[in-house]
User: Which sequence fits this backbone?
């Protein structure tokens, strides 16, 4: 799932980290791919990855399918495209559940991440019209 953000790469992930922590989720790591590329003498548009989640929510998925550890903690990737727009992407919870053959009822444990990513991007579903 990919959303256009109203903010820059760093600001988008700052917002996501703040929103996640406000909901009691942990921020485990942040990787700045562009900084690492520059340190290696390479060029890369702004691109950062945030790893976040809640062990109480993720552990039940890991208990039934250890391989889900490839996708947990959750990861959100914010990046700048060639036109300068910022995007934020996250694997859909339904994809993670299907990929690792996790019982469908456990999807709810990680589904709330989508609302956090949308809010970090500046998407207000309460104001959206259908």
Assistant:
């Amino acid at each position: 799932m990919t959303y256009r953000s109203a903010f820059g790469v760093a600001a988008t992930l700052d917002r996501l980290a703040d929103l996640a922590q406000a909901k009691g989720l942990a921020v485990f790591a942040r990787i700045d791919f562009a900084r690492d590329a520059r340190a290696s003498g390479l060029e890369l548009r702004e691109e950062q990855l945030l790893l976040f989640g809640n062990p109480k929510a993720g552990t039940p998925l890991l208990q039934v399918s250890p391989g889900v550890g490839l996708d947990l903690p959750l990861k959100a990737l914010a990046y700048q495209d060639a036109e300068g727009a910022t995007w934020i992407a996250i694997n859909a919870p339904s994809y993670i559940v299907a990929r690792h053959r996790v019982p469908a009822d456990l999807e709810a444990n990680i589904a709330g991440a989508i609302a956090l990513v949308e809010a970090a991007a500046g998407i207000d579903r309460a104001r959206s019209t259908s």
User: Anything to note?
Assistant: The chain has one domain: 2-123. Residues 9-22 form the longest helix (14 residues). The first strand starts at residue 2 and ends at 5. The domain at 2-123 is CATH 3.30.310.70 (TATA-Binding Protein).
